[in-house]
Amino acid sequence: MSDTPVKQQNTAAFYGQSVISFAVAMAATAIGIHRLDTDAWVRSFLAIAVLYLVTSTFTLAKVIRDRQEAGTIVSRVDQARLEKLLAQHDPFEKL
Question: How does 32-64 read in b/e, with b if 16+ C-beta sit within 10 Å?
Fold first, then answer.
């Protein structure tokens, strides 16, 4: 059988940078919405829209990741079947 691929891990620095970037973006958006010179209902609507957008983005990222992982598993099963057939095949055997 072939070597199993090493699962890719993100570095701690990349993870930290991602978390900090997300926090800064959310804080800047919240401050911007709070400081808008408009009615409270408009600011509330914008805040809820931003939260909905964030949750939708996380859900979409999870669905894409799950689909990619499922494709990888199917590919590995197919590769294992092919390797088994090739290992069992004797090209010098008379038909």
Answer: ebeeeeeeeeebeebeeebeeeeeeeeeeeeee
Q: Determine the Cα–Cα distance for residues 22 and 6; give it in Å rounded to an integer.
A: 28
pLDDT at 1: 47
pTM score: 0.61
Cα end-to-end distance, the chain, whole Å: 27
- C-alpha span between 52 and 57 (Å, rounded): 9
The predicted-structure confidence for 4-29, as pLDDT tens digits, reads as follows: 555 667 889 988 999 999 999 999 99
Which token pair is 91?
């090209």
Work out the average pLDDT over 37-58: 95
| Amino acid identity, position 13 | A
**Helix, strand counts (H, E) of the chain:** 2, 0
